[in-house]
Design a protein that fits this description.
Radius of gyration: 20 Å
CATH architecture of the largest domain: Alpha-Beta Barrel
CATH class of the largest domain: Alpha Beta
Shape: globular
Oligomer: single chain
Strand order of the largest sheet: 3-4-5-6-7-8-9-10
Number of domains: 2
Bound molecules: iron/sulfur cluster
Structural class: alpha/beta
Number of strands: 15
């Protein structure tokens, strides 16, 4: 079976074909549309339902996060119970790259983040760790994704490129491609993501100039809530896909679990519009005022109140639309502190409280019920100061 097809008349970069379960990514195959389960992986019932829901929405691939051996056990069960759907599964590895060994038998693709790989087992070289993962992929006949995030590039690369964080992201991706090539492993895809669509466009263009052969997974991470999250993503995809760049996409939206199919619908609509030459204009001044960045949530989300919190945040800050202020809200303590670094006000969720920071200054943890009261005070102070 091939990818769910659509009218794709635009010229595409001649990337190599990478087989991921029943689908092909790259090599001229239709652009694959994917999403990620937002449920706790160990909540098997909820995760199975989430995979079914995303598959029913027409996804080509579903991703699941795995952080522990217990998550791996749950993954095996989820795979067994969704096998009849035939939909390929991919897993996001976080810090512990060694879990690849246990994850691989149950999936069609593994994504690792070079930034996280750098931090784990510092006594080993990056090449050794990549070789371990590539070897596991070969043994299990699966693909890999080198998933670089602009906000978590490995510190050596970040220091080398100083203020050019896009340059660091691209260099990190190229470095890992070179390692994999050198190991004789070619069944890989690359992604370079950020919450700023301009950086996504810039990074993917720079990379594609140097490695037009490598299939690219496109996404604006933490794009936020609809409609803004879809608009940000559309701007990036229109520029890249129209130029022939991009072999698979994910639209990351902060929406309730039951609405995750919206990511697939939005992705397909964007692709078919581009294929038909329908480029949408964006609202005037879009991106010039208040910018809310929010993650799409995943199995690491620490409290199910996160989605409500993000939606309420949008409502209570609506009055500040004209002000050039960025507020970031993230679902967990793993990525929350780093992913809020560039925001004027940042929130990230813990199990019982929400952490708040203004710029780089941490203001403390507040109950879910009252954190937005404090945020409004901080927002008012920024506006009074002329922002
Ligand atoms: S910030 Fe945390 S909860 Fe949100 S998508 Fe990233 S890892 Fe998942």
């Amino acid at each position: 079976m091939t990818n769910v097809s659509f009218v794709d008349q635009r010229p595409r970069n001649k990337t190599r074909a990478v087989q991921v379960g029943r689908i092909t990514i790259g090599g001229g195959a239709p652009i694959a549309v994917q999403s990620m389960a937002a449920t706790k992986t160990q909540d098997i019932e909820a995760t199975v339902r989430q995979v079914q829901l995303i598959a029913a929405a027409g996804a080509d691939l579903v991703r699941i996060a795995v952080d522990s051996r217990k998550d791996v056990d749950a993954l095996a069960e989820v795979r067994a119970r969704t096998r009849d759907l035939g939909i390929p599964l991919s897993v996001d590895l976080q810090e512990n790259y060694r879990l690849a060994e246990f994850v691989a038998p149950h999936v069609d693709k593994i994504r690792y983040n070079p930034g996280h790989l750098y931090h784990h087992e510092r006594e080993k070289s990056v090449r050794e760790k990549v070789a371990f993962i590539a070897d596991i992929a070969v043994q299990n006949d699966i693909a890999l994704r080198v998933g670089v995030n602009c906000g978590s590039v490995d510190p050596v690369m970040a220091a080398k490129f100083e203020d050019d964080d896009v340059g660091a992201m691209v260099a990190s991706a190229l470095e890992h491609c070179a390692i994999l090539d050198d190991l004789g492993f070619s069944r890989y895809i690359v992604s370079m993501k950020d919450s700023d669509w301009r950086k996504v466009v810039d990074g993917n263009r720079r990379f594609a100039e140097q490695r037009p052969d490598v299939p690219l997974h496109l996404g604006v991470t933490e794009a936020g809530m609809p409609p803004d999250g879809i608009i940000k993503t559309r701007i990036a995809f229109e520029q890249l896909i129209a130029q022939g760049i991009g072999d698979t996409i994910r639209v990351s939206l902060t929406v309730p679990f039951d609405d995750k199919g919206m990511e697939i619908a939005a992705g397909r609509e964007i692709i078919s519009d581009i294929a038909a030459g329908r480029f949408r204009s964006v609202p005037p001044n879009f991106g010039e005022g208040l910018n809310i960045i929010s993650c799409p949530s995943c199995s690491r989300v620490e409290n199910m109140k996160f989605i409500e919190l993000a939606q309420e945040l949008k409502q209570v800050t609506a009055y500040a639309q004209e002000h050039k202020i960025t507020i970031a809200v993230m679902g967990c303590r793993v990525n929350g502190p780093g992913e809020t670094d560039d925001a004027d006000l940042g929130l990230w969720c813990g199990p019982a409280a929400v952490n708040l920071k203004r710029g780089e200054e941490e203001l403390g943890a507040f109950p879910y019920e009252t954190v937005l009261d404090r945020l409004k005070v901080e927002l008012g102070t920024l506006i009074a100061a002329g922002r």
